């Protein structure tokens, strides 16, 4: 990114961010003042989530700015999806090593295209100079008392995941190793442009007993549900939905770590009583998102991953953790 010193923060806001997203009627005051003024409808609760993405830690420095704009919003919307919330507003804090109008324009395009899909308005933020990092806070709305949480799983509940797992982790490994594959564009699409399962989260309100988005790996994130709910679980590894690319990789390596602990899936993991299996199938057909039953909540105190022959498989690590030396760079 080229550096310029002849443009002010206010110029950046006016030129790129002020009209970056659509305007919502529940925004009394948006970008341009000391704070935004937002109207939360009566009978609704506000869900708030924030994530920071840092170059070289959460994304490769050579990611396209459009993909990065999409991803920084998508990973936050994934958190709202896990709560069953409908996206409404966002703030953006952007730290840039320099000002490149083309780069910023493409970043804004990736961000705003995803925001438009969910009628989300950018209502404020900050820009500053420094190593490239982006912080996005999102706010969403949901009916009072209807939020999905991590703490509601009950013994006997089914465990489901949306979509397929392991594609983004496989892309990460291939990119690090310099492996050029025929299916690399599809894999990179899962890594750089994840699809937040917002529609699935909203549809699961009233059915799911708990939910979480799979950002750090299935074992780690399902583990958060188990810890919060005070339960255990068994997962049948051969039930986990895989794309053809990941299935082929697994057949070669016979290593489930990529799928269980790879992270960056941004799918939903949720639990619900077996009595709702028909509703899950109906929701899946209606919104066009696969929902696969992979295991069962039980009274034991841990997560057990079962191979097709019934034996236990244990990963060396459960998923991504910040500040751990053994973690990767994404």
From TrEMBL:
Residues given in the record as Mg(2+) 4 binding sites: 34, 49, 79
Residues that bind ATP: 125-126, 150, 215
Record: residues binding substrate: 58, 264, 320
Annotated pathway: Cofactor biosynthesis; thiamine diphosphate biosynthesis; thiamine diphosphate from thiamine phosphate: step 1/1
GO biological process entries: thiamine biosynthetic process; thiamine diphosphate biosynthetic process
Binding-site list for Mg(2+) 1: 51, 126
EC number: 2.7.4.16
InterPro entries, A to Z: PurM-like_C_dom, PurM-like_C_sf, PurM-like_N, PurM-like_N_sf, ThiL-like
Binding site residues for Mg(2+) 5: 216
Ranges where the PurM-like C-terminal domain occurs: 154-303
Keywords for this protein: ATP-binding, Kinase, Magnesium, Metal-binding, Nucleotide-binding, Thiamine biosynthesis, Transferase
GO molecular function: ATP binding; magnesium ion binding; thiamine-phosphate kinase activity
Superkingdom of origin: Bacteria
Binding residues for Mg(2+) 3: 34, 79, 213
Residues engaged in binding Mg(2+) 2: 51, 79
Reaction(s) catalysed (UniProt annotation): thiamine phosphate + ATP = thiamine diphosphate + ADP
Family affiliation: Belongs to the thiamine-monophosphate kinase family.
Misc. remarks from the entry: Reaction mechanism of ThiL seems to utilize a direct, inline transfer of the gamma-phosphate of ATP to TMP rather than a phosphorylated enzyme intermediate.
Function noted in UniProt: Catalyzes the ATP-dependent phosphorylation of thiamine-monophosphate (TMP) to form thiamine-pyrophosphate (TPP), the active form of vitamin B1.
NCBIfam families associated with the record: thiL (TIGR01379)
Annotated protein name in UniProt: Thiamine-monophosphate kinase
Organism, scientific name: Candidatus Thiodiazotropha endolucinida
